[in-house]
Predict the structure.
Amino acid sequence: MKPHETLQCCGPIDDLLDAELFKALGEPTRLKLLSCLAKCGRACSVTELTECCAVDLSVVSRHLGVLERAGILTATKEGRTVYYAVRYKDLRDAFRAIARAVEDCRPKRAASKRQTRRAGTSR
């Protein structure tokens, strides 16, 4: 693309690239928490997740809040304990939609000479 050419809009990618989602996933401790929850396969308390990450409880709690606000986790309070769980379907759907949008934006490859020759000889 030449510098003076403008980029063409290629669909809903701008709406799908949620900075809050990527910011939440862009921190090593939060990735570790997500990994711990995914491996556990069930909702876990802040205390359980603190043991998994070897980080102070208040730090874990803050990171879990970021992940929840980004739509990555759900929080359920039972008495005084808060349990966090991965929103698997929402996370999967978000990444699939982003992957489709990126694919839609990818420049279409011109047919190779070989394909062009084949098409010409099959007439």
User: Anything to note?
Assistant: The mean pLDDT is 82. The longest strand covers residues 73-78. The chain is about 60% helix and 10% strand. Residues 30 and 63 are 6 Å apart (CA to CA).
